[in-house]
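Page 37, top half.
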Amino acid sequence: MPGTTAIRGTSFSLETPNTQIVFARRGDVWTFAHIGEKGGTPGEYATLAAMRPVNDDQGSVSMETYPAFGSDRCRDNGAKSVGHKFGALQVRHCDGDESVQWKCVRASLVGGSHAVFELADKKHSGFRAIQHFSASPDCDVFETWVEIVNGEEAPVALSRMDTFCLDTIGIDEQFHVMSLCGLWANEANVSECRLERGQKIVLGARSGIHDAWECNPAFMLSIGNRATEETGRVLAGALCWSGTWEISFQHVCTHEIRVNAGVANISGPYVLDAGKSIALPKFVFTFSDRGKGAATRALHRWARRHLMPHPGEREVLLNAWEGAYFTFDEKVLTGMMDGTKALGGELFVVDDGWFGRGKYARNNERVGLGDWFVNREKLPHGLAWLASQARRRGLKFGLWFEPEMASMQSELVEAHPDWVLQEAGRPIRCGRGFSQVVLDMTNPAVRDGVFSIIDATIREIDGLDYIKWDANTEILNAGSPFLGPGKQANLWFDYTQGVYELFARLRAAHPGIVFQACASGGGHAEFGFLGHADEFWGSDNSCAQQRVLIQWGESQFYPAAAMACHVTAVPNHQTGRDASLKYRFDVAMSGRLGIELQPGNMKPEEVDFAKRCVANYKRLRPVIQNGDLWRLASPYETDHSALLFVSEDKRRAAVMVYGLNRRYNDGRPAPLRLVGLDPAKRYRIGEINVVEPGRGLHTDLDGKVISGAALAAGGIAFDLGPGDDSLVLELTAARATAHRAAART
């Protein structure tokens, strides 16, 4: 690699403005000497790390950067070695040996911020691991990934293949693990518990597709006392993967902490052929000594700047799904386009139901999936004409696909039954609609076929701007006709890699298209898919009250620009709950604002109010989508939720408060201390999205100019009505407010 230099000496560090990783050479390998606050020299941390004893008779732990089953754990000053029973990697070599003892054969630094360790087994020198650590100084985040190379004479079997393993002693006596859990329509619940001595916490997903359900592949580990938003020491990490995975935390009785993160081989070892290599997914992490909020902001900045394919602002869209479902024609869709334009929308998206023909016409969820050609009975003029109608109205045009799946009742499966994942000799299990199956994305021929069909559809439109990529079934049939009997356990890893390869081909062929990752709702709300898509659908539950909680959870790790939040009809189609149009818009404004209802069913006064909300959002869009987030009040601890978005230059900000089942006459909530503002600036405060301009304000500060220092120390007093009420405040640095005053309504 250009700019590569050999690492000399016995210690060095990778640094960001606030965080430091120190590596120290001990014996044949490199070890972690420090991951945490920045300060001190590498040599000092190496000395301190070498003095951390496990107990009197075992010497000190090596803290190897990539430990493997069977490796030596202690090797300083002649202390006896202890065979490692955990580690990040476990392999059965071609001769049946199951141990690995690494020797670092090369260590190098690329450009000053990217360290590479090339490790070789001492016995099987052809078996290697190339480990990378890369620092992103602009956002206090580190990335690490590993390539496994089989240079042996025959296949090897990998039963454990983690990307990250932190195995260290003596950094504290207590730990707390925060993660997200949930299922369909109830994603991203915040869960946190203390990791007691002798206990192990294991997070993971075995769906193969809905990898962000049950558990999300991200966590925050409090080191010492349980961290708050603004206080405490936190290691935050996330696995960038969309398949089966496992992240575990073990608190050993000697106060050793073990953190492992990687893909999960849930049905047996992965078989890696001789002469082949695989790249394991990235793991990203950050350290904060200023609480969870700082860790969140670091991960948000990293995702926006280094992960998501299309940086910048996202359009306000209207998706036709909940407004029309499968029952639409050209007149319905063009009428909805008119409604989208009238509301101030910028993008119109046709969801499920536009494809299939004859007996497989997609008029319900049971047939036609995979037949990606237009249903001429519904859309006689075709997709190109429909897209031209959107452009005539000044709108961009988007379309729904589900590339990974098909209906058993489809032309695709009739022609290619071997393209379906299936277990030899067993009946095929079906998912959604009792018909849906998963295509074998391990098979290059399947990927080629799906790519050709979708690519042709996109080219027919000549101007597709947006694709909603859905995935509504997990892997129910754990068998691949392509892989053959000796490699069936490879399915879980190779399937996800195949999906990524298909995604990359479509993006390379059509680089301007913005993609949304959807998997029965929030099944792909994670960094793995965000490396290919531009946003995710957080949940099929569009109920505003529950979205407050779902979006709060997802905001722990994922930025607002990636979070699609839609205003839908009432009573809500999932929960039956009612909510004011104001409340629904206020909640949806905390991410990428969208609309998912039939505009033709709205009253004139609702259309007028919605237009004002959309205009307000567009003005605040740069702050919400690309600013820093400060979580001010938790819905888990109070009867409301409060968020503060602040622009990078701290000249603009937005405050959003959502009441949740508040009791009548229950007093004002505590003032909101706006800790993320510039103390030296003075901000003009204005309440927006007010139903009746000039009336019904939630604060007496509308129009006032107050310093950031005072707003942080004294806070903003506000009121909320009973039940579900909300407010949105716009703050602008005083010198830039004159031309905006008239826009506040």
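Page 37, bottom half:
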Amino acid sequence: MSDDVLRPMEEREAAAKLTGAWHEGEGILAWLSATGHKTTGRRFVLTSFGFFIAAGVLAVLMRLQLAVPENDLIGPDLYNQIFSVHGTAMMFLFAVPVMQGVAIYLVPLMVGAREIAFPRLAAFALWMLLFGGLLLFVSLLLDMGAEAGWFAYVPLSGPEYSPGKRSDVYAQTITFSEISAIAAAVCLITTILKMRAPGMSLNRMPLFVWASLVTAFMILFAMPSVMMASTFLIMDRLIGTHFFNPAEGGDPLLWQHLFWFFGHPEVYIIFIPALGMVSHIVEAFARRPVFGYVPMVLSLAATAFLGFGLWVHHMFASNVPQLGASFFTAASMMIAIPSGIQIFCWLATLWDGRLVIRTPLLFVFGFIFTFVIGGMTGVMLAAVPLDLQVHDTYFVVAHFHYVLIGGAVLPLFGALYYWIPKVTGRMLDERLGQLNFWLMAIGVNLTFFPMHQLGLEGMTRRVYTYPPEMGWDRLNLIATVGGVLVALSVLLFLFNLLRSLSVGRLAGPDPWGSPGLEWATSSPPPEFNFALPPVVTGRSPLWEAGEEWPVVTGLKLDQREVLITSVLDAEPDHRTEFPEPSIWPFLAAIAVGLTFIGSIFTPWAVVAGSVPVAITLIGWFWPKPGEE
């Protein structure tokens, strides 16, 4: 019998046995216990997207309030809560988690693995994100929403100027989200370094995998800083410490240093994964590998490295020494170089490719246009004299929305149109997708471009209304119309997605003719990803291998056994058995969550909560009979 006949038979037999070993079960208990990376990744994306929609509703309310002068739609106290919760949700509950969710789903498929490393830890990260987000939005409904902005400067967020529990809720929301981010980062780093398919050496890894690896390491170094800051803040408020009280030896600038040491890398933590997404979309629709693979990887690493060296960029209006500020000015300008290198590499790829214009590529074009504008205003803000003039004005609001929407949201929507067929097995409608793009691209620029002029005219951030004689009404009305268009574009995407689930055209394994391993399996992928894990021979496996390629054999089919490979060259090292689905990560997240929420009201909650946390962790790690 020929190999052409044997391979499909072998794969079918393997798949039948693997289905039983990797099935996550049915029912509510199985739903809560699920730990598969595709389940966790989908839930991460859906959860963070839900918070994105909720925060978007708040943004529309803000724009309606500012559409005309002296509007009384929203009062000043509620407006404070709305803009604070909006910013906190977008930065902590959407921008980072949604990128991690995409990575949790795709990275194991891209590297040829059957599962993500530490799947229970990834599930725990999901539940912590969900509970932290619910805390933030429920507190808003109870008139306890955060009120000091997403960066909550002290002393404004301290006990003297923010009585009640609003800033405590903010501080604990930060702790929830950062624990989630760090846990997910650990899973991704281990998967990428130790679970790649044989032959996938570091110089053959897909660019999105490189971007996810760089981002995960950034999270490990950046997130502890803001967790420490939020812990100091709640301790000042709850038990009378004085980390930020200058009268008792503290320093309010300590908050800014701790926060922005996280806060500026946070921007790159958000958009570095988006850069990886863009690379995959560009090569798929240019029909050629991305130009300059090595410079692209080095640019990702350089962006991460420089991102930790310019946090004082946000503190030029404070009393930092002028000589020190000049170094951070230089770093703020230098970081545009690696981003520029990547843009030129994409343009070279498109220029020399055979372009197929589809919705994902349109979002890439929109990303390049919008992100370049945001990058140029970022270089302007790196200059101390200009920064001092426009500090805390709408010019800064316009800049960071151009960077974050252009650098993250537009690529993300392009990636959703590109990879959703792999997740659901159905194609999204192309005409609706193109309408979706134009509504969003026009809406974003209508909303935020006028804010540059508003900032130059002196309109400050975080004001809930303004007098008519200031002359800001026309530009604010244009911005509000743009905000409504953005909201409509998101609703159109949701309609397109729901419609495709029932009547969308079947996608097949590789509807775009893409080169990555994620397209080598069915759509949607089976629970075990690959019946016979592949062996990689190049950077574009599907384009280079032809009809057949080598596969891994010898793994047990009746157990959750996976292959562990070496860090540099992905040479087979050993096999290990992965754990079954478990309810303990969910219970551990409840125990930790109740401890954090209780600590908003009394420090004794930390003591009392240690008992259920310990019980759930013991249950989590308690070995089953037969496990070593």
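Margin note: The chain has a mean pLDDT of 92.
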